[in-house]
Write a structure and sequence with these properties.
5 helices, alpha+beta, about 160 residues, six-stranded antiparallel beta sheet, single chain, Thiol Ester Dehydrase, Chain A, about 20% helix, two-stranded parallel sheet
């Protein structure tokens, strides 16, 4: 995994900073997510009935696809050497553009849209993310994702 320093982050603004590996979203994953969230709508968990829907089969929950961003981020975005902890702060925008059919593969693309030093030991980052579906023109989702990088204040770059 590539590592960078806090001081390098502002220089990455506007750049794609990571592309994850493909993740297969199979029916087992969808069923387990349905159990965890108690969302057993037929388009997710009933292949026979879902085959008659406009989707032609079961599809992943939008929130399942969204939740995969954590794994995609962890494996593809450079690690900041000085980071002591990373925190999910939230989203400014999420759009579920295309359904993820059971058996599809998805991956995340991350572009650093903003980064601001806040307080003595915090960097707030905003990533424009897209979750692509293999062999599909439109993404599964797009989002503006805000995270917080905490670090020891003694590691704060000078001049910021």
């Amino acid at each position: 995994m590539r590592e960078i320093s806090l001081a390098e982050m502002p220089g990455l603004l506007g750049q794609e900073v990571g592309v994850s590996d493909w993740i297969t979203v199979d029916q087992t994953m969808i069923d387990l997510f349905a159990d965890a969230t108690q969302d057993h709508q037929f388009i997710h968990v009933d292949p026979v009935r879902a085959a008659e829907s406009p989707f032609g089969g079961t599809i992943a929950h939008g929130f399942l696809t969204l939740s995969l961003l954590s794994a995609m981020n962890f494996e593809s975005i450079p690690k900041i050497r000085e980071q002591t902890v990373g925190i999910n702060y939230g989203f400014d925008r999420i759009r579920f553009v295309s359904p993820v059919r059971s058996g599809s593969r998805v991956r995340g693309r991350f572009t650093l849209a903003d980064c601001r030093f806040r307080g003595a030991g915090m960097l707030m980052t905003t990533y424009d993310v897209a979750v692509e579906i293999e062999n599909e023109r439109k993404p599964a989702l797009t989002a503006s994702w805000i995270t917080i990088v905490q670090f020891d204040p003694k590691d704060r770059p000078e001049g910021v």
